[in-house]
Write a structure and sequence with these properties.
There is one protein chain. It contains four helices and twelve strands; from the N terminus they run E-E-H-E-E-E-E-E-E-E-E-H-E-H-H-E. The protein starts with a strand and ends in an 11-residue tail after the last strand. It is an alpha+beta fold. The strands form four sheets. Strands 3, 4, 7, 8 and 9 form a five-stranded antiparallel sheet that branches. 27% of the residues are buried. It is 20% helix and 31% strand. It is elongated. The model has no long low-confidence stretch (mean pLDDT 83). The protein has one domain.
Length: 220
């Protein structure tokens, strides 16, 4: 296919014949360029095991090792401060452009480290969290200039927030009725002091595969 046009340079006028060897869609062309360059991820937050991107949505899968945490947990048992042991905690922190999408950000447990997107997740026994892992973040405020900094800030602020008995029927009460080690906060704290790794031996309720909670059609 040939195209002809006039090209003016100073006082000269050129008749130019342009030959088009091949035409492809722009998306296909950009895709081939991306393959040649290789995929470069953004700076990842601490503990990030996987990164997933689909369109304007970015999701960081952040995994935290088993540990004893001091939480502020009000209106249950007596007192506010509790030292509680946790298994692996997996955060799926989702962004829409540069803003955290709290409706798609989720929190789960695991009793072993993540391997791939087909790995299964377990429901936490935290109040303020729905069965699908969606967390009620209340008045949490996240800071940071980059996505990684905002993701790290979200995790930090989540653990610093005031837990309460809201949504307890979703996860806390079912786990309390099934597993005596966490039947209440007093028992949970006592077991944590005796054996900080006891959560790794509990068969927490299953939530589904990690891939089920990631946006479709992206890359990871």
């Amino acid at each position: 296919m040939e195209k002809k046009y006039l090209k003016i340079e100073g006082d000269a006028v050129h008749l130019v014949t342009e030959r088009i060897e091949r035409t492809v869609l722009l998306d296909d062309f950009l895709g081939e360029i991306q393959k040649e360059r290789g995929f470069i991820s953004p700076i990842l937050p601490q503990g990030c095991r996987m990164f997933h991107q689909s369109g304007t949505r970015t999701t960081f899968v952040v995994e935290q090792n088993p540990q004893v945490r001091q939480l502020t947990w009000r209106k249950m048992d007596n007192g506010d401060a509790w030292k509680l042991a946790f298994p692996y905690v997996v955060f799926l922190i989702s962004f829409s452009c540069d803003a955290i999408d709290t409706g798609a950000t989720r929190i789960f447990y695991r009793t072993s480290p993540l391997g791939n997107g087909d790995e299964k997740l377990q429901r936490s026994n935290l109040c303020n969290v729905y069965q699908d892992g969606h967390a009620c973040t209340g008045d949490m405020r996240v800071s940071g200039a980059t996505l990684a900094q905002k993701a790290e800030s979200f995790v930090t602020e989540f653990w610093k927030s005031n837990f309460n008995s809201d949504l307890s029927d979703n996860n806390f009460n079912p786990a309390a009725n099934r597993f005596p080690q966490v039947k209440n906060l007093s028992a949970w704290q006592a077991e944590s002091m005796k054996n900080p790794l006891f959560p790794l031996g509990i068969q927490w309720f299953e939530a589904g595969q990690l891939a089920d909670f990631l946006p479709k059609g992206g890359r990871s």
